[in-house]
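Exercise: predict the fold of this chain.
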Amino acid sequence: MAYIDFLSAVHKSTTRDYLARVNDPEFPKARAAELAKKFDFDYWDGDRRINYGGYRYMEGRWEKVARAMVDHYGLKAGDSILDIGCGKGFLLYDFTKVVPGIKVTGIDISQYAIDNAKEEIRDHLQVANANRLPFADGSFDLVFSLNTLHNLHCYDLDPALREMQRVGRKHRYLCVESYRNEREKANLLYWQVTCEAFNTPEEWEWWFRQTGFTGDHSFIYFE
C-alpha cells in the first residue's frame, strides 16, 4: 500500500465559497444535502448550489488522470479495469483514449448517471452498490474508486472495502475525502453534501487494516 496522489490537481482547480454553501437562502446546506443524496438530476445537472451544477464531459480534464494511472500501473491493451462510483463514465472513456483496447467496466448507484453516461462506453456501465459488487473474485487488473466511498455509512463502508479488495487481481486505488485539522474539518462539513464517513487519515488507515484493504490510496483535503 502506498500514498499516490492522482487527484489533487483536479480538486484544486475548483474555487469554493464555503460560507455561501451553508448560508444560501434558496438552497441552504440541509436542503442541498437532501436533494444531493438522491443522486438524481439535482446532484449531477441541477443548480450548482446543490452539487455539480451540470456534470459534462470536458476534453482533457480526466485524460491526465487516466494517463497518470496508466503509466503508474503499467496498464496495456487487453487489461481490465473497474471504476466503483463511475458517475457518467468520463474517466473510463478517457482511459479508452489513452490505451485503446483496454477493457473498462463501471458501476454507480445512480440510475440517472448511467442513463446519461458517455455514449461511447455506456454499455460497459451498470447500476450496482459498492457493498456488493456483481463480479467474481480477481476479475480486474485495476480496481479504483475516486471520491465515492466516503459517502457510505460505516456498515456499508466495511463491506465495500472488502469487495474492492476481493474483485481486484493486481492493483487497487482509492481516493476519499479527509481532514488533518479543525480548519479542514470545518471546510469539509460546510462543503460536502453527501459525505457520511468523516475520517482523519489515521482513521482511514484503521479502516484499511480492519478490512484487509491493501491498495494504494490518497486523500482530498478542503484547505
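Check your answer against the key: The chain has a mean pLDDT of 96.
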